[in-house]
Amino acid sequence: KPFQLLPLIESGASEHYRFSNEQLSIMCGSHNGSDRHREVVLSNLKLADNSPEDLLCGFHLPLEMRLNSLYPQEGEDKDPSRHNCSGKHSGFLALAKYLGVPTERYLDPNSKHQLMIKEAVASACEYSSDKMKIGIDGCSAPNFSMPLKNLAIGFKNLAMAKAKVESTSRALAVSSKVMKEFPEMVSGEKRPDLDLMRSFPGNIVCKVGAESLEGIGFSNEEIGIAVKVLDGNNRALAPICIEVLKQLGIIDKIEKFPLLEKYVDTEIRNYRKLVTGNIRVDLKLQKV
């Protein structure tokens, strides 16, 4: 999502609609669907003269309600503006409106702005767009395939705001800045991404993806990280990321990072809250 935002910035659409950093940050995120997240998404739509009815991301039980075991009382689970991808979709709609693409075609992979997005993702991740296979994301947006290595390169470039094209470097700098400034818009409370960004304030960009995927980039060190758990289950993702940071020497003593301690030797509990096991990471990074 941070890479899919780039054409909105490079094209001048973000300045045209006068999106704030907070509004841009939620376009980079998979948010919790809280009341505040919903307010920001709705404000994005309004600035570009779009409406919640234009959102084609679908709907689900908001992550905030799932994390807090809350039951929807006012149709929150049927509200597309609370979908974790609605921020990104509000950006898609704004770019489509700015370029004159019909609203109903804003997810068409062959539309002008989606082709721009594909090229931007390819450029940031240093991968040929011709090699990218196009799939359909869980939120119905076009999704692009690439090797895990290139995703890591992309997050390194995002954190360092570096690209081969100067305009892309400037756009990466904006995307990185807004994520660092408003990390709670990128994810939300009780989420590993927010805990990571709060643990390394101003120095890290990170973003979870569907089917247990994580991208991490550091600003003060030229490091990009991409982790994928093959079975798609998220429960081991954060512990793996913490172990990678430990082996890279970024985390020396976990006690120095109180927000991250809970992801080490994570307990697995059953429905009676009895401990039935632990998640322990067994890996060793290798140079290739």
How would you describe what is shown here?
This protein has 288 residues and is an alpha+beta fold. The protein has helices at residues 6-10, 13-16, 21-27, 35-47, 63-67, 86-99, 112-124, 148-160, 166-181, 183-186, 192-199, 237-247; strands at residues 134-136, 142-144, 204-209, 213-218, 223-228, 266-269, 275-279. It has a three-stranded antiparallel sheet with strand order 3-4-5. A hairpin with a 4-residue loop joins strand 4 and strand 5 (223-228). Helix 4 (35-47) packs parallel to helix 6 (86-99) and helix 8 crosses helix 9 (166-181).
Task: Give a quick precis of the structure.
Helix content is 39%, strand content 11%. It has helices spanning 6-10, 13-16, 21-27, 35-47, 63-67, 86-99, 112-124, 148-160, 166-181, 183-186, 192-199, 237-247, and strands at residues 134-136, 142-144, 204-209, 213-218, 223-228, 266-269, 275-279.
Structure characteristics:
288 residues, 7 strands, two-stranded antiparallel ribbon, alpha+beta, 12 helices
Strand and helix map with partners:
Layout: H1 6-10, H2 13-16, H3 21-27, H4 35-47, H5 63-67, H6 86-99, H7 112-124, E1 134-136, E2 142-144, H8 148-160, H9 166-181, H10 183-186, H11 192-199, E3 204-209, E4 213-218, E5 223-228, H12 237-247, E6 266-269, E7 275-279
Antiparallel strand pairs: 1-2, 3-4, 4-5, 6-7
Helix pairs in contact: 3-4, 3-6, 3-9, 4-6, 8-9
